[in-house]
Amino acid sequence: MKMSWIAAAAAFAIGAHAPALADAYPGKPLAIVVPFAAGGTVDNVARQVQDVLRDKFGQTVIIENRGGAGGTIGTATVAKANPDGYTVAMVFDSYATEQHVYPKLPYAQSGLTGVSYMVRSPMVLAVPAESPYRTLQDYVEAAKQGRDVSYASVGPGSSNHLAAELFHQTAGTRGMHIPYKGGGPAITDLMGGHVDSMIASLPLVLPGIQGGKLRALAVTSTERSPALPDTPALAEHYPGLQVYSWVGMIAPAATPSDVLQTLAQKVQATLEDPVVAKRLGERGFEVVAGGPADMDRLYGEESERWGALIRERNIVTQ
Fold first, then answer.
1. In degrees to the nearest 10, what's the CA dihedral of 108, 109, 111, 113?
2. pTM of the predicted model, to two decimals?
């Protein structure tokens, strides 16, 4: 009888304490790992949401750029982080292809879970403003003539790389792949004429196009982009060819479900905030504001789609 009373008291204490634990989150700063160099697409989104997310979160939000190895180094730090909801990563679309490209990943995919499918955008085939390729036809003709037309990417298996491979495969041409450690360095070299082209997210190249340092030859959406109404869609020449770039948030898989949901709700509220939505829209992003299930579904679909191309084109890295 005495033991039953003790058990009941303990159960009551645990039950009474559980809401307090849940209510305590968030109780300290949030660290967002961006697994690429500063200045790229993912970093751009992180900087646009940082201030409002801080207000929604009620805590300081710190952005940590940890580039290298196509994003796998930064992603690994989150997979191995304490699953308490305070360390997350904002990832590029390459997150869905890393397992197909790298023979040995520094993290287990089972150690990560989705938080939010945040934004997406069409991509743009862009060249330096001084490039001799003034139209898509010029570019394709040069590649067909066997010239070493180079294209930049943020790493093997990234959307830049795969979109370019898919384009060249569809057009019956070849290009020379030049990988970089992030979108910022790649765009800098593109504008400087050190690389011939890049298929990059619209937000990444739009400032350069508007500033007269880059020229857009085509967009990868099925229809022309409102931001670049005079630029043809690749689908106008190659029906069915479309590619979207996207950014999402992930967390350690063992993060408690209530904490994960709270984090996801705050990210969604941040993305739907009029100030943030306007900022992102002006930079060419389409706000999705999806939840954990949306991010996990996107990962699965993109992994299946691009995995097939990676195997067919034998795209690997050492």
1. 170
2. 0.83
